[in-house]
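FORM 12-B: Structure-to-Sequence Request
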């Protein structure tokens, strides 16, 4: 597989292609590293070209992202790849909060859907359009990290495989 196609497949699979190290220099993933990450994500694919085709097709059918994040008190905005002929129709929207409470209602199907303001936590979103239910994990994260009232300590112990 050409490196360009390999990088596209990795990008479509949410595999990071590069990072900036502490000194500010950009490090790019090697062909071998990308191949290993893709194999770990999709074990047993005979050809990466088949995996690229399958991933493109899966993304075309995906109506909402598998994970959506809202920060702080912002109102969650969900991008929707509206199925053909469904713009403007009503869809059932159900959010199961981390507490177990359920917020349910209807929304008009558009390219984006505004959800109600939600408490911080891990929630589940179900959007039913034309009888087909699409699900997403909805994370509402605080805008700032918690700061302890007094000094504390912890252990940092990275683990590597050899």
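FORM 12-B RESPONSE
SEQUENCE OUT:
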């Amino acid at each position: 597989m050409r490196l360009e196609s390999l990088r596209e497949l990795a990008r479509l699979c949410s595999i990071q292609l590069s990072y900036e190290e502490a000194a500010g220099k950009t490090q790019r993933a090697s062909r071998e590293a990308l191949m290993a990450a893709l194999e770990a994500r999709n074990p047993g694919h005979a050809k990466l070209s088949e995996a690229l085709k399958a991933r493109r097709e899966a993304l075309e059918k995906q109506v909402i992202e598998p994970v959506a994040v809202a920060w702080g008190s912002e109102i969650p905005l969900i991008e929707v790849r509206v199925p053909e002929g469904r713009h403007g129709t009503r869809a059932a929207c159900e959010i199961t909060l981390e507490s177990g409470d359920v917020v349910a209602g209807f929304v008009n199907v558009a390219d984006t859907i505004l959800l109600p303001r939600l408490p911080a936590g891990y929630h589940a979103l179900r959007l039913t359009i034309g009888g087909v239910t699409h699900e997403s994990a909805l994370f509402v994260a605080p805008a700032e990290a918690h700061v302890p009232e007094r000094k504390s300590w912890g252990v940092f112990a990275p683990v590597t495989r050899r």
